[in-house]
Amino acid sequence: MALTINPLACPQNHRCPITRVCPVGAISQDGYGLPVIDETQCIECGKCAKYCPMRAIENKH
Ligand code: SF4
């Protein structure tokens, strides 16, 4: 998995804007509002890393 979420950079407790950016609906949010990527659905397009305003998602590609 090339995408990793940095919980320290994410403010959490909010409606994460990148859940709507993911083309395959692979991102949901946990009980604290932290985004969670479903690795079985993710196609590693990198859009979430590009659009996260907090740069909380790293794309290691
Ligand atoms: S890399 Fe693309 S497919 Fe994977 S979670 Fe991010 S936006 Fe969705």
Give structural notes.
The protein has one domain: Alpha-Beta Plaits (2-Layer Sandwich), CATH 3.30.70.20. β2 (27-29) and β3 (35-37) form a beta hairpin. It is mostly beta strands and 61 residues long. It contains 1 helix and 4 strands. The chain has a two-stranded antiparallel ribbon. A two-stranded antiparallel ribbon has the order 2-3. It has one helix at 47-51; strands at residues 3-5, 27-29, 35-37, 57-59. 21% of the residues are buried. Bound molecules: iron/sulfur cluster (SF4). Iron/sulfur cluster binds next to α1.
Q: Could you give the topology of this structure?
A:
Elements: E1 3-5, E2 27-29, E3 35-37, H1 47-51, E4 57-59
Antiparallel strand pairs: 1-4, 2-3
Iron/sulfur cluster binds next to α1.
Report how far the terminal alpha carbons are from each other.
9 Å
Structural class: mainly beta
SSE run: EEEHE
Mind describing the biggest β-sheet? 2 strands, antiparallel
| Shape summary | globular
Second CATH tier, the architecture: 2-Layer Sandwich
Helix content: under 10%
* CATH topology value: Alpha-Beta Plaits
Unreliably modeled segments: none
Number of strands: 4
- Rounded average pLDDT: 94
Q: What is the CATH C level class, in words?
A: Alpha Beta
In order across it, which strands form the biggest sheet? 1-4
**Attached small molecules:** iron/sulfur cluster
Radius of gyration: 10 Å
Helix count? 1
Counting structural domains, the number is 1
Measured by DSSP, the beta-strand proportion falls in 15-25%
